[in-house]
Fold:
Amino acid sequence: MMDAQKHLENLNEIKRIMERSTRFLSLSGLAGVFAGTFALIGAYLAYQVLDKDNFINGMEYFDSKILLSGNHAIHIQLISIAIGVLVLSLGAGFYFTHQKAKKENRQLWTVASKKMLLSLLAPLISGGILCLLLINQGLFVLVAPITLIFYGLSCINASTYTHSEIGAIGYFNILLGLLNVFFLGYGLLFWVLGFGFLHIIYGTLMYLKYEKE
Amino acid sequence: MLEGLNKHFESRIRLGVMSVLMVNDWVDFNTLKEQLSLTDGNLASHIKALEKNQYIEIRKGFVGKKTKTTYNATEVGRLAFKAHLSALERFLKL
Structure:
């Protein structure tokens, strides 16, 4: 009986070491919660900017018929909001992940975390460049769905090297992105669902599952 | 001793080293140490033992002027480790 106990422990230990050495598991759920919250605040501010200008009806913020390119003031305000959300989300992500790694006595810069970052960034940067090109062509209406789809692909790709649950957020985002192409013009709404609520729900679940003591 | 169990893998440290090397190619000493939360001397002796059995191979390279030693599981080592795992699983199913 003693032997069985020892062998079972060894098997579990082997499994744990294999997982830990190939996956970066210090990613914090709180990072998701904060990124989602910043996304919601950003969406609200963007809505205010567009609403104040009063040149749209309903939800067609990103309708191709609205020539945003003619209004540089709005452009600059929207881009400022976007950069603000990006910087705050990355900052929170780094901070909470750093805290979690420190608490678990783990290094932040490991083979697994490098692989995770690379697999995340490859589709993400491709999508980002594609969006800049679309904006340059005046195809604003496609920006929201493309960001959702490419972010989804990034999550699925990165899930090989971190908590596999991140893949689920990826599939949901791709689904939202595709739906957004069906309901063109409702980009802000789909962003709120994908980058806002999905992140908050996912981050909370991950926090409860892996971090809460 | 249980049938099929490999006595070279009796030590938890050797088991740990093999576990890391089964799923990662060419891992350096410090990474191994960190993954297994070990001290230098402890790890070095077990690595030597595994190398002697030809379960792992060693490659010495340079990063700038510093030497960097990396380790990889050999085919012999992989087969031996898999056999050991199957033996453990068989035993636990009984």
